[in-house]
Amino acid sequence: MFETRDGEVSLPADPATLPPDAHLVFIGRIRSPWTRREDCPKNIGAARDTGQAATLEIDAPYRPGLAGLSGFSHVVVLTWLHFSPRTLIVQKPRHATQPKGVFALRSPARPNPIGLHIVRLTGIDEAAGLLSLEAIDVLDGTPVIDLKPYFASVDAVPDAARPEKGR
Amino acid sequence: MFETRDGEVSLPADPATLPPDAHLVFIGRIRSPWTRREDCPKNIGAARDTGQAATLEIDAPYRPGLAGLSGFSHVVVLTWLHFSPRTLIVQKPRHATQPKGVFALRSPARPNPIGLHIVRLTGIDEAAGLLSLEAIDVLDGTPVIDLKPYFASVDAVPDAARPEKGR
Known about the structure:
2 copies of one chain form a homodimer. By secondary structure, chain A is mainly beta. Helix content of chain A is 6%, strand content 30%.
């Protein structure tokens, strides 16, 4: 391992160059207003605050999988953050006081660069494979790898605790 | 496409045999009490009801990524449900009144068989790469592909709506 920036640690081997343990297919992509990384909101709250909507396009073979999704107010979108480096196992976010492990962060840079987004579904056209989303915090063209209904009964933990600031 | 069971629909091509769009590395695995599919709880609520805990083992190269996770009460675990078929795009769950698209279900059988689990973290040994989980609804040995902190501020939507029963 070698240090990369002020306390950051890289993996000994880049997961992108390791033999794959399993493979993904892209099932669609996000259409968002963000085409440059510097414009892209850093989290879903910031995306919502812009007031800018987004669209999720599902590719033709997978569109029958949308049947029954209408009526859910929220969905879980899993994306493949294809521009992210996969080696940074300890990272120092700009505003953090100290470096943190990637599994304590929602950083896009992770061994498998999967983005998890809980988003409000504002419309759906099953035949065209188009989902209207209130907002999302990824670049235009980001591949989608899964889409799930959000169930408050198992997915909402409003009293979940996190470490105090500064830790 | 061909029908498989009472309203079910399969994809024209099995994603498992398509050229990969991206590749995954396994970063660890779940140790759970469930070694036979018929014993494995069907969802996280049922897993909790058993009162049986589980362990998440992170492989050595990825253990530095755990720094800072202590203090979170809940984590998001993403698993690779390696026994699941990937072709069933419309499914008829045993107790459903009609077939539904896979994206309206939390079925393990999906184009990319990724499991999403919001679990309570009851202990952590960063050096050994061991996380104690209150419970989880996957078979012993299930590969883990990502681990994220759960943030109530963005991940908890307690008033999220779903279609009425029977739809």
